[in-house]
Amino acid sequence: MASKHFTIGKKVIEFEVINFGELFELSIRSNTKQDHPGFELELSLFRLSIQLHFYDIRHWNYEENRFYKNNEEIECYANLELTKEDLDEDHLNCKCNDIKK
């Protein structure tokens, strides 16, 4: 129906209203230490759903327990010949240590 997003540095705020939801639902989710960590609030009432999502655009380096630093992911891609199977589900992070040349 309608959506809008704003990017502020490495953070994104998304607001969406859709005409598809439950009769009534209130959902609050948050996550950390993963790709795009953040907070999500969803309210559905009579099949009208309002969603607010605040998240970080960075990707998580699971091996070093931190966000990837600038250009680390790009360097990872540049050093390998990758196929779709070499990328994670959102096709953005490189699984460098899982790939054998």
Helix count equals: 1
For the biggest β-sheet, the strand order reads: 1-2-5-4-3
Sheet with the most strands, sense and barrel status: 5 strands, antiparallel
Mean pLDDT: 80
* Rounded radius of gyration (Å): 17 Å
Could you list the spans in which at least 5 consecutive residues all have pLDDT below 50? 97-101
Shape: elongated
Sketch the topology as an H/E string, one letter per element: EEEEEEEH
> What is the domain total for the residues?
2
Distance between the termini: 46 Å
Number of strands: 7
Set down the secondary structure blueprint.
Blueprint: E1 2-8, E2 11-18, E3 24-31, E4 38-45, E5 48-56, E6 60-61, E7 66-67, H1 72-78
Antiparallel strand pairs: 1-2, 2-5, 3-4, 4-5, 6-7
Concise summary:
This protein is mainly β and 101 residues long.
Q: What would you say this structure looks like, in words?
A:
By secondary structure, the protein is mainly beta. The chain folds into two domains: 1-58, no CATH class; 66-101, no CATH class. It has one helix spanning 72-78; strands at residues 2-8, 11-18, 24-31, 38-45, 48-56, 60-61, 66-67. The strands form two sheets. It has a five-stranded antiparallel β-sheet, with no helix packed on it. Strand 3 (24-31) and strand 4 form a beta hairpin. The chain is elongated, with a radius of gyration of 17 Å. The termini are far apart. Residues 97-101 have low confidence and may be disordered.
